[in-house]
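Person: I have long wanted to understand how a fold can be written as tokens. Underneath my words sits a plain record pairing an amino acid chain with its backbone structure tokens. Those tokens are not coordinates but codes from a learned vocabulary of shapes. I should like you to check that the lines agree and flag anything odd. The protein I mean follows directly.
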Amino acid sequence: MADMLISDPASVMSHKITGCNFVTVAPTIVNTTTPVVGKIPVVIQEITVQVDVRADITLDQPAIEIKRVKNRLKLTQCRLLQPTGKLFLRGFVRQNIEYVGAPTSTTSATACGDILDCIIDIPFDCVENITTFISPPVFGGFNANNEFEYFRSTRLPGADFPKKEKLLAGDLSEFNQQTVEALTEPPYCELIGSRITQFFEFIGRTPISGGPFEERTFTQMEEKLDIELTLKILQNQQVCVAASTACP
């Protein structure tokens, strides 16, 4: 008989972690007797967005049933378009689908298979129109290029004009311009949480040869998702802070 390859047994080692010493530190606080202006993140709106998504999924291995689906919502874009109230959202739902693979052994009453998993990303995007704000966003204005010119009086050439007359017009021998560049603090988002309700429908289920009569395998699914995500929209703004000596 050929020698069997025996792997090393599992092992574990534990170590005692000693405690850390610490001391409290009094924070440096500026108490003022007059109001001050600070630049801080201001919540301009907090919303819950609802998105409906349909996805066609094809597994790489045949499955008998789904055991568990672990969802994680990811946002890749959250952009408030100023001066409009359009909020552009883009992201995806990361799904780790655990399922029972095609049976490796069957009888008329049993079907035994391995637990497999497949990670997929389901994209979504939408646009929301925000018409009201907790605190209105600050918009710096538009860039502008404004030309201006100076008046010039010159003699008229030739004999077609009286000698006393002059050409009164703008000066074509120069170019003058004023450029205005307006910079705005961009609003940004924080993802507070999400709720995902989903429905899977298996397509093209095939009977298992020699297995229980009601068991079927499939590779294709149609999924419907109802996604609700809560967002906080913020913008760095200059805020007046009242005078205070309350802090120690």
Remarks:
- The chain has two domains: 39-140+185-241, 143-181.
- The mean pLDDT is 91.
- The chain has no helices and twelve strands.
- Residues 143 and 181 are 5 Å apart (CA to CA).
